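Running this now, will post back.
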Amino acid sequence: MGINKNDEFIKRDIYIDYPFEEVMFRWNHKEKKFYRKFYGETEYGKTIPAENRLLNDAMRFGEEIDMREYKDGKNTNA
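Update: finished.
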């Protein structure tokens, strides 16, 4: 599947779910920054660099979700 890095990143916020690692990412298009949220946790307070391995795996193998799914979060499978 994966997320296509096209001009949608310029136009709007993007939310990514990567269930394999139980993590979600949020792209803020105005700030041009990524944020991370592990399942069962709140959003990490610092930005995530674009070269982050986990982020790039999520971009390649994750799927796009909507803002509500991201904000509601998910529970861990453990």
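The mean pLDDT is 92. More later if anyone needs it.
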